Amino acid sequence: MLLGLFLIASAYLIGSVASAIVVCRLMKLPDPRSGGSGNPGATNVLRVGGKLPAALTLVGDVLKGLLPVVLASALSGPWVVAATATAAFLGHLYPIYFKFKGGKGVATAFGATAGLAWPVMVAMGITWLAVVAATRYVSLASMVAVGLSPVVAFALALHPATFAALAVMAGFIIYRHKANIERLRSGTESRIGENTEN
Question: How many CB atoms lie within 10 A of CB 4?
């Protein structure tokens, strides 16, 4: 019990490290919360800082979802692993170090999913790439990919804990994209390559 609580709490604290803010500070770039869309994520770092800081942000966000899950998988059972994945994800959304104002969680969810069930992550990645290629909307691709994840988990008959974690992450990500959904509906959402807010 204590080990499980430690793993879950540690995952939340690791998830709370905002890679976008850390990378931008280290590289002396504008705070991503004050430019572009204001979202501390890789897409906005690409807008305010360029490809290298965006790539570093993406890697950091994926790893903070993946590593706690890998550790929990080695030390505990499926429900603790699922809770650890969810905690790392929620840390990104509501980081304790940054007044509980975080990003949308897509990259961290991808990392956590890779640790939970890599076939689901592969399906998410393929879906994301396909939707981006067809529409050039990162937000739409993200929502479709994460929305698909619990469906794939159910189809593969994965453990209920894995399904639950993926469903929670999908729900939060779609909710966090509510402004993007409105812009998609109105035709004002930015596409890859456009220098407008996303």
Answer: 17
Cβ atoms of residues 159 and 121 within 8 Å: no
pLDDT digits (tens, 9 = 90+) for 101-122: 898 999 999 999 999 999 999 9
Q: List phi, psi (to 5°) of 187.
A: 80, 20
Interatomic CA distance for residues 7 and 75, integer angstroms? 9
Confidence of residue 196 (pLDDT cuts 50, 70, 90): very low
**Residue 194 to residue 198: CA distance in whole angstroms:** 9
HEC string of the chain equals: CHHHHHHHHHHHHHHCCCHHHHHHHHCCCCCHHHCCCCCCCHHHHHHHHCHHHHHHHHHHHHHHHHHHHHHHHHHCCHHHHHHHHHHHHHHHHCCHHHCCCCCCCHHHHHHHHHHHCHHHHHHHHHHHHHHHHHHCCHHHHHHHHHHHHHHHHHHCCCCHHHHHHHHHHHHHHHHHCHHHHHHHHHCCCCCCCCCCCC
Report pLDDT digits (tens) over 151-160: 999 999 999 9
pLDDT in tens, 27-62: 988 888 887 778 888 888 988 888 999 999 999 999
Note the pLDDT of residue 128.
96
CB 123 within 8 A of CB 108: no
